[in-house]
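Deliverable D4.2, example record:
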Amino acid sequence: MRRLLSKDFFIFLMFLVMSAVFWVLTTLNETYEAEVEVRLEIADVPANTVITESLPDTIRVVVKDKGFNIVKYLYFDNMPVVRLPFHMYSGRQNHGGVTAGELQKILRPRFGETCSILSVKADHLDFYYSHGAQKKVPLLFGGDASAKTNYYVMKVKVVPDSVVVMASQEALDTINVCYTEDVDIDNLDKSVTKEVPLARIVGAKTNIPRAKVRVVVDQLTEAVVTVPIRAVHLPSQTMLKTFPARVDVKVSLGMSMVGRLRPEQFSVVVDYFDLAERSPKEKMPVRIASKPDYVLKAWLTVRDVDYVIEHTQ
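Output generated by the structure prediction step:
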C-alpha cells in the first residue's frame, strides 16, 4: 500500500513539474515590454580635452520582445558598454551629444532580431567639454545652518575655500563662485563637520566633487561691560558732561567670547544735535554707536542721562 502511494505521488509530482514547465514555456513565448539598462561611454577623447559634463552613465531602453529574450536581457546577458567616439559626436561651442534616434540605431544590432526598441529614457543625451580652459573661484556653502535654542552658529567654514572650474572660456566668463549643494544642517548644539557634494554647474566640471563644511556652534550667554559715555558733534569751545559718566552695556554672545570683552571695544555716545529737539531740562538719550562683531546683541541699562554743558573761551 505504501509503495502504491509513493508511486502515485511520484506520478503526480512529475505531471505537476511538466505542467509548470509547459506553463513557463508558454508564458515566455509571449511578447512583453521591459526596460533594459545600457551603459554609455565617450571614447577616444583627445589628450588636450576634458569632459566637463559627461553623458549619463546608464540609460534605460524600453524594448519589446519574446519573454525568453526579455529574461536574457534582464538577468543573463550583460549588455556591453556603448562606446561613442568623441570625434563623431562632439559639436560646436564645446558641446556635443547624440539623439535618441541615433542611439536606437546603434543599439539595434545589440539585441535579437525579434526585438523592437520602443524608446530611450535618459535625463539628457548631451555632454560638454573643454580644451584646457580653467578658472579658480571661491567655494561657498549653499545650504543653511541653524542651532538649538540658547545656541548660535558662530561661523560656517568650507574646506577648501576655492575650487578649480573647467569649462569653455565662454562659460568660465560667467562663473565667479561655486556653491555646495543646498543642504540644511539644523538643530545643532555642538560644532560639526560634514562632507557635502558641490552643486552642479551645467557645462562645467570642478577639480573636486565634494567639500567639507565646518559649522562652529557656541552656547549663548549674557554679560555686562561698563563703558564711558562720549559726546559727539560738539561745537568748538563746548564741553558736555554726563551723569553718570559711564553706563552698563548688556550683551549677548557666545561663551567662548566672554574673555575677549573690553570696554574700549564699544562706543556709547550722546549727540549734541539731539539738544535742538529737546528742552534744556530734559535728559539726553544715550545710544550704542558700535560694538564688536562677535557680540550678537547689545543694549543699554539706561536710556537717558543728565548732563551739563560748559562753554570755554
